[in-house]
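We were asked to recover a plausible sequence for a given structure. The inputs and outputs are reproduced exactly as logged, with field labels preserved.

PROBLEM: sequence recovery
POSITIONS: 93
GIVEN STRUCTURE:
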């Protein structure tokens, strides 16, 4: 499922966010991918994804400071890769 999304991502999307180690390289994408590999019969509805900052810093998206444990807006890459999954920590942009 994620491999297909990865393969079909547009160049515009891939180039839209550069504060990363590469397209689809954030922890939430890795975690969902590992969960799907561990249970090949799992669907999007079977997973619940919680995205939080694990340290203090400043958001690349809206430049607001954050403390560890806070929810945050996913980057465009993660929004695309995880579209349709149950996200319990998404905040407004």
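RECOVERED SEQUENCE:
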């Amino acid at each position: 499922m994620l491999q297909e999304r990865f393969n079909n991502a547009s160049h515009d999307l891939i180039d839209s966010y550069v504060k990363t180690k590469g397209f689809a390289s954030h922890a939430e994408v890795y975690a969902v991918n590992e969960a799907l590999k561990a249970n090949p019969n799992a669907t999007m509805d079977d997973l619940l994804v919680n995205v939080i900052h694990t340290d203090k810093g400043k958001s690349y998206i809206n430049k607001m400071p954050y403390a560890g444990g806070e929810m945050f807006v996913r980057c465009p890459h993660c929004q695309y890769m995880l579209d349709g999954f149950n996200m319990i920590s998404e905040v407004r942009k």
